[in-house]
Amino acid sequence: MMPFPFDISATDGRARTGVLRTPRGDIRTPAFMPVGTAATVKALTVGQVEHTGADILLGNTYHLMLRPGPERMERLGGLHRFMRWDKPILTDSGGFQVMSLSGISKLTEEAVTFSSHVDGSRHVLTPERSIEIQADRLGSDIVMQLDECVAWPAEEGRAREGMELSARWAKRSKDAFGTRDAQALFGIQQGSTFENLRRESSERLQEIGFDGYAIGGLAVGEGHEAMCEVLDYAPAMLPHDRPRYLMGVGKPVDLVEAVWRGVDMFDCVLPTRAGRHGQAWTWAGPINLKNARFAEDQDPLDPEVPCPASQDYSKAYLHHLVRTDEILGKVLLSWHNIAFFQALTAAMRAAIAEGRFDAFRRDFHARHVSNGRG
Q1: pLDDT score of 99
Q2: Three-state SS string across the chain, please?
């Protein structure tokens, strides 16, 4: 019996829409999770994030274990109370950031030993410690197994090593997590761009048994087309009746193509990162508010997006804020971008429910991608 029921209400081809039911609230799928790296979605209050329609946030174990620290976080009442977000939170395992940000001194069967990018302090992260931090100290609702995300490009032999280590760590993560009524554990499919490795990874994960399954090791430099080639087969290798989560993705076109191939959940730092640098996604495509052509444009950013930042301020004003590096510009563009991603997933849910997702996908490409892939 899974702790979080997953009800698929409609399918259209491989695309599906449904609800993942948690004690802290329902997560409507397809779902985009804003990234709250260090207990904050950058530049936004939780009220602003909630206003966009987000059902769930992502927290980052690596950053939170360094600052403020897992034991302190537990003393302060856990991540939900700390950041004043009472809806579901998914935490990643910390593995990707350990591999990409820190100075790794040793990767062994037992653990990864690394140096903090903040102060150089030494840390050891095992599958068991990652589960303890996420489930017991931070109190996350959806916990991720610790895995190794192999850098791209990778030879098949190296990709196999990472996949097999991740599978063994998946078993240790599951043993450490045990059985819980109010928290769920997701396993992570690995295998780079090799179909045989992803199939083997999926089989090994299902033998262990998880509450949901993630597709890892993508959006690491392989490009949109190569990612889509993997997604042509990878989601179908995972159980139909459990949520499928594509980690670290991505641009709006990536979301649409992944949903068309059967993916349910996403996260990415891109909306807020781009917003802080003057870029906004709209239904007409991505735009850069630094561009001089917006200096006297009195139209709103995107009246089709139900957000004050999208509807109540002119592009000329936003252009001014960006060019003068005002903090408000970063806030408004981040707020709009998160709202656009939520509007996009809501539109996809409606299109799937009404059996018109193929038409939605074609229209999206015509309106959005033709004006600049983003």
Answers
A1: 76
A2: CCCCCEEEEEEECCEEEEEEEECCEEEEECEEEEEECCCCCCCCCHHHHHHCCCCCEEECHHHHHHCCCHHHHHHCCCHHHHHCCCCCEEECCCHHHHHHHCEEEEECCCCEEEECCCCCCEEEECHHHHHHHHHHHHCCCEEECCCCCCCCCCCHHHHHHHHHHHHHHHHHHHHHHCCCCCCEEEEEECCCCCHHHHHHHHHHHHHHCCCEEEECCCCCCCCHHHHHHHHCCCHHHCCCCCCEEECCCCCHHHHHHHHHCCCCEEEECHHHHHHHCCEEEECCEEEECCCHHHCCCCCECCCCCCCHHHHCCEHHHHHHHHHCCCHHHHHHHHHHHHHHHHHHHHHHHHHHHCCCHHHHHHHHHHHCHHHCCC
* 325 included as an active-site residue: no
Catalytic-role residue among 55, 92, 211, 254: 92
Tell me the per-residue pLDDT of 160-185, one tens digit each, with 9 for 90 and over: 999 999 999 999 999 999 999 999 99
Q: 26, 147, 264, 267: which is the annotated catalytic residue?
A: 267
Whether 136 is catalytic is no
